[in-house]
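Recall that a protein's primary structure is simply its ordered list of amino acids. Everything else, from secondary elements to tertiary packing, is in principle encoded there. The following example makes that idea concrete.
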Amino acid sequence: MFKWFAPLLLFAAKPEVMVRLLVAGLAAAVLFFGVWLISSIAVTFDTLKNPAIAAIYGVVLLIFFSVVTAVGWLRLRRLTASSKAALPQPAPEAAPLSKEIVGRRAKELAGKWHAESRTARKPATRVNVAPAPAPVPPPSAAARATLLVTGPAYAGKSALIEKLLEDGASTAADAVVRLKEGMATDGDERHLDVLVGSVKQSDGVLFVVDQDLRAPEVAAIKRFLTTGKPLYLVLNKADQFGGGDRDAILNSIRAKLPARFPAAHVVCAAAAPMPVEREIEDARGAVRVEVRRPSGDVSALTNVLAHALAPGAVPALRFERAP
């Protein structure tokens, strides 16, 4: 029984043969079905009795058979051509060079190498280059003060320190101010005692707030002032207030401080202003919205510190982060 499947196994090993057989079978089936269909229609309507209709019927059958045969032949021819084109063509081998050409080229190379080896090499000239003078480091400015930066939580103490370090990054400074970020003033009495100890070890305090003073903050400021160290109060995030509101907050802060507290030590700053949306209209009339972050402004604070460190002059300050 299995011997009848041997030819099928041979055809399965060659896919192009199986494709040809399938195409031939489909063409034969189309021919048979077409003849049967047209004959059935002709016999059913009994139209072959008319000679003209019989002639037309014969022409239609001839055209149908010709088209099917041509399509099947072109399909088989295309498969045969693609299989032949897929076979790799061996590259033509280059003809070997003759012994005379090889020998002549070898003699030329040997003569060239011999001539180069006999040529005396010139000694390399030695050039004495004077060493470049070492750069003279700029005179380092003496540290004038170490300020402790404290205040309530989320008032922008870290942003203020980063802005001062960025603006004061100058090598030609007349004085150096070291900034040390301390703990927030939010806490109990023990926490406040630790902060007072840190204030005693520094040269002053930068007290940073972002709103009007509250009772715990007023109490902390009074404790810091008992150490005798100067205190500078900074109203940060001033860009979030209008002109009138900002002046009202400053007046309220000054009223809550002790009577002998210098009013000039209360300043405004905007270390990290909030982004601002701006509408920009192009030449076509289209409006687009751009979000821009204004640059920070701590000039009022730096001016106050400069006058406090060197009365009668306005030195250039350089801020550093205290260890």
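Strands lie at 143-151, 175-184, 204-209, 231-235, 266-268, 276-281, 287-292, 317-321. The radius of gyration is 50 Å.
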